[in-house]
Amino acid sequence: MKKTLDIHDYYFGVILATPEYLENTERVRLLNGVDYDPFYKIPDTEALIFGVPTLLKKETTDNKTIYIDEYHSRFPKEITYSLKEPNRLGLVLAYIKPFTYYYNEQPSWYLEEDIIKNGRFLELYEKHTYYISYSKLQKREAIITLENYEEEIMDDYLKDLLGEELFLQITDQNKEYVKDIDIQ
């Protein structure tokens, strides 16, 4: 299989729900028992205010840049975003950073069938923060992240949204509040 995935085409983004999305009947998108709603695990108010981080693939067609949400899509290019514009479902891409900002090791490629057959999961966790899995059987490639940077992505998004000073002020107050609770 030809290895075509380029990590420089991938970004982490924070997506937010709009009130229109929360009322949209298309929000419930199930396939084989899997819920593809990016916000099914969090309260609606959190979806509107904070959103969720997700991995996106950048593509440019007809001089327009779009970001494809492969994780929350049931089929290729089902969910796409343009920065800070609601998409057809009412989802908004509020923030993006290159994949390589968080994961800076060189990509390592592993055959998915080989990983499963030879039980190489532990070895991969010990050696890498991420790897690229390719499958001869399914004829696809995917980035598999082994270290989770969700919290840092959300912090970066909030710093961008609120500004460094206000973000630090809020998080410092939160740390003091947590200390007070721990003491009691």
How does this structure look, described?
The longest helix is centred in the C-terminal third of the chain and has 20 residues, at 164-183. The chain has a 5-stranded antiparallel sheet with strand order 6-5-4-1-7. It has a 3-stranded mixed sheet with strand order 8-9-10. A two-stranded antiparallel sheet has the order 2-3. It is an alpha+beta fold. Helix 6 (150-162) crosses helix 7. The chain is built from 7 helices and 10 strands. It has helices at residues 19-23, 44-49, 99-102, 112-118, 121-127, 150-162, 164-183, and strands at 10-17, 30-31, 34-35, 52-61, 64-68, 80-81, 91-98, 109-111, 130-135, 140-145.
In N-to-C order, the SSE pattern is: EHEEHEEEEHEHHEEHH
Morphology call: globular
The termini sit apart by: 59 Å
Task: Kindly provide the radius of gyration, computed on alpha-carbon positions and rounded to a whole number of angstroms.
Answer: 19 Å
Rounded average pLDDT:
89
Count of helical regions: 7
Approximate helicity band:
25-40%
**Tally of strands:** 10
Sequence stretches where pLDDT stays below 50 over 5 or more residues: none
Class from helix and strand fractions: alpha+beta
Strand arrangement in the largest pleated sheet:
6-5-4-1-7
The biggest sheet, with number of strands, parallel, antiparallel or mixed sense and barrel status, is: 5 strands, antiparallel
Oligomer: single chain
Beta-strand residue percentage: 25-35%
